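> forwarded from #structure-qc
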């Protein structure tokens, strides 16, 4: 047991600081990807509800493809495809060197695209759940579009979307483990390196599991608090 504790110490003698830095990187990628996913999800939901056939087909294609292929494949396609595309564009302008995209940015983009595909349906369903009569009542009171959005549509949509977005966040947080294939120093990458260097895979993968469980538990508590706050004053059936 003492040897195991020594391996988890901070400093040069242990891997505790590397694991915590990896956890911090995991949170950073998850937050960035989730926020970017909300942008994609909102645009996708609005496209599906716009009534435009072109926008609707484009949004359907986006959600079908991103939810239909493995997340790891999306990461591979973006990681290698982005580099290849940039190098080809650079060669057009006479640059023949190697271009490498920052792994953090690619990771956030990949996670954001995946998160956005799931968020699209959550946000679309939440918008459709807002009673149309409330919007009509707002118009009858003389509210403008901006006021209808700020005072009726956005608060109601957020309230209906929060449970689904909480699930999307949990998936997003766990999907960050897949970006270890890009050698980004997130939690799974740190656990992999520690397990390989010390030949104690159970210890470090177990430590990573505890850290993931801690992050998801805190997230669950946060979303539950947000849901209770959003539903304050709402009459229960």
């Amino acid at each position: 047991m003492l040897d195991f504790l020594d391996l988890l110490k901070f400093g040069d003698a242990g891997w505790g600081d590397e694991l915590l830095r990896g956890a911090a990187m995991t949170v950073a990628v998850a937050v960035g990807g989730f926020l970017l996913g909300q942008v994609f999800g909102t645009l996708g939901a609005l496209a599906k509800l716009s009534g435009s056939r072109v926008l609707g087909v484009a949004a359907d294609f986006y959600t079908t493809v991103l939810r239909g292929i493995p997340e790891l494949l999306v990461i591979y396609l973006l990681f290698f495809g982005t580099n290849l595309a940039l190098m080809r564009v650079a060669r057009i302008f006479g640059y023949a060197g190697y271009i490498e995209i920052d792994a953090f940015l690619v990771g956030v983009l990949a996670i954001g695209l995946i998160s956005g595909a799931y968020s699209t349906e959550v946000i679309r369903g939440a918008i459709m759940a807002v009673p149309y009569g409330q919007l009509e009542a707002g118009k009858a009171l003389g509210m403008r579009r901006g006021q209808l959005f700020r005072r009726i549509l956005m608060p109601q949509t957020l309230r209906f979307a929060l449970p689904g977005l909480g699930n999307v966040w949990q998936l997003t947080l766990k999907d960050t483990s897949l970006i270890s294939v890009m050698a980004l120093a997130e939690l799974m990458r740190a656990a992999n390196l520690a397990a390989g260097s010390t030949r104690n895979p159970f210890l470090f993968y177990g430590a990573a599991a505890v850290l993931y469980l801690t992050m998801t538990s805190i997230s669950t508590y946060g979303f539950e608090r947000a849901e209770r706050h959003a539903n304050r004053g709402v009459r229960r059936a």
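QC bot note: DSSP finds nine helices and no strands in the chain. The domain at 2-230 is CATH 1.10.3720.10 (MetI-like fold).
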